[in-house]
Each structure stands twice: as structure tokens, then as C-alpha cells.
Write a structure and sequence with these properties.
CATH class: Alpha Beta
Helix content: 25-40%
Shape: globular
CATH topology: Ribosomal Protein S5, domain 2
Number of strands: 9
Number of domains: 1
Strand content: 25-35%
Distance between the termini: 40 Å
Strand order of the largest sheet: 1-2-3-5-4
Number of helices: 6
Structural class: alpha+beta
Order of helices and strands: EEEHEHHEHEEHEEH
Radius of gyration: 18 Å
Length: 244
């Protein structure tokens, strides 16, 4: 099938990650994936959540928040702060981002601190959660470099990198990195979160009034792995550190 932007089935949208996009966070990245743009920022708080203190849990914590700006889509959305509560979608996505990042962080090496990761979508054209995870990991690595350089933590805390990409079946064809119109039309929609060591963190796969076979799943995961290699390369490019 012909994709609306002329890409091949196994081709990512253009990537452009811009480090230190904001002035004040410990680390920040503007993650650009096609027409989707997300600001990912990491801030330091020199304390841990109260539940960690109450349960005498050692180490530190990494937590995430996610939101879309009202003008991020072609129809204005009301701010969730005005509504007084997070939508189920935003809550689920920010939990996913937090889980994905904690999977590659040694929390014991963040003694007594919390790293807050904010992912703010300024333009949405599909794949916002994937762009958030990938950009957030790069911002977290930049922040970790500064924590070590400033002597706030004694050891490197990241065990690996993590990135995420979408794949799906559209008109029966496996496609990589779905834009919004493809995602809306997909019979099967999947988000694949993986480390740069080749281990899965999470796979979210759903048949939208459809089912999929083992063979189709294998093809989708193969596409995802190809896209993830490009995302890891972009993380490496902007962080300037070969994380082993």
C-alpha cells in the first residue's frame, strides 16, 4: 500500500531529538518523530516519596507525568487541570512511561532523590507515548550525567537505554511507526517498548475489531526492532555517551 507521506512499510518518520531544549531542567529533550513533538524534561527533588520512607525502602525513585497541550491536535482539548482530574488515557500513559524508565534505572544508585520526568506533547500526529518514552530516556541520561558530574550521586544509575515504537496492521499490511491517520485505521495497533540490550519491557497489542496471527505478530515485532535501532542511534547521538 502507498502511505500518505510516501514512506515504505519499514520506514520510520524523520527523527530529530534536540537536547537541552529547556533552560531549567536537569536534562531535557525535544523529541520530534515526524509531526509529533514532545518536550521531555527531568527535574531533581532531593527527597523520596512518603511511602518509601514509611516502608524503609532504600534508594530513590523515578516518576513520570504526561499531558497534551490543548492545541496539540486539530481540535482544541480542554486542559485536564481545568477538568480537575487526569483522563484515563493520560493516567495510563504516564504510568507506562514511569514503568519503562524504572526498568532501566538502578534505583539503589539514586539515594534519597526523586527524578520527575515531564512529557508534554506540543504536537500530536500519532505515537505520542512512544516519542515520550524514547525522548524521556535520553533526557534522563543527560540528567544522570550531570548528577554524577556534580557529585550528587556517586555511580552511574542507568543499566540500559529504553525506547518505544508503534507498529500495526493497516489494510492487512504490517507498517512501522504509525501516524495518526494510520493508527486510526489500523486493524491491529501495537506499541513495543524495548531496551538497547534487546529485552522487552512491555508490548501493548490490540486487535481493533480484528485478530492477528503468530506470523503477523512476528512480522510486527521484526518491524519494531528495526525502528528501535534507529531510535537508539538517535539517543546515542544526542547524549554522546556509549552506555554499557
Amino acid at each position: 500500500m502507498s502511505r500518505e507521506d510516501g514512506r515504505q512499510a519499514n520506514q520510520m518518520r524523520p527523527l530529530a531529538f534536540i537536547p537541552d531544549f529547556q533552560l531549567h531542567p536537569l536534562g531535557s529533550v525535544l523529541a520530534v518523530c515526524g509531526r509529533t513533538r514532545v518536550i521531555c524534561a527531568v527535574s531533581l527533588e532531593e527527597k523520596v516519596p512518603s511511602w518509601m520512607k514509611a516502608q524503609n525502602v532504600p534508594g530513590g525513585w523515578v516518576t513520570a507525568e504526561y499531558q497534551m497541550l490543548p492545541s496539540a491536535t486539530n481540535t482544541r482539548n480542554e486542559r485536564e487541570a481545568v477538568k480537575g482530574k487526569l483522563s484515563g488515557r493520560s493516567s495510563e500513559i504516564q504510568r507506562l512511561i514511569g514503568r519503562s524508565l524504572r526498568a532501566v534505572v538502578d534505583l539503589q544508585k539514586l539515594p534519597g532523590i526523586t527524578l520527575h520526568v515531564d512529557c508534554d506533547v506540543i504536537d500530536a500526529d500519532g505515537g505520542t507515548r512512544c516519542a515520550s518514552i524514547t525522548g524521556a530516556c535520553a533526557a534522563l541520561e543527560i540528567a544522570a550525567q550531570r548528577l554524577v558530574e556534580r557529585g550528587i550521586i556517586p555511580e552511574w544509575p542507568l543499566k540500559a537505554r529504553v525506547a518505544a515504537v508503534s507498529v500495526g496492521l493497516v489494510n492487512g499490511e504490517p507498517l512501522l511507526d504509525l501516524c495518526y491517520t494510520e493508527d486510526s485505521a489500523a486493524e491491529v495497533d501495537m506499541n513495543v517498548i524495548m531496551t538497547d540490550q534487546g529485552r522487552f519491557v512491555e508490548i501493548q497489542g490490540t486487535g481493533e475489531e480484528a485478530t492477528f496471527s503468530d506470523e503477523e505478530l512476528s512480522k510486527l515485532l521484526g518491524l519494531a526492532k528495526g525502528g528501535l535501532k534507529e531510535l537508539f542511534a538517535e539517543q546515542t547521538r544526542i547524549t554522546g555517551r556509549a552506555n554499557g
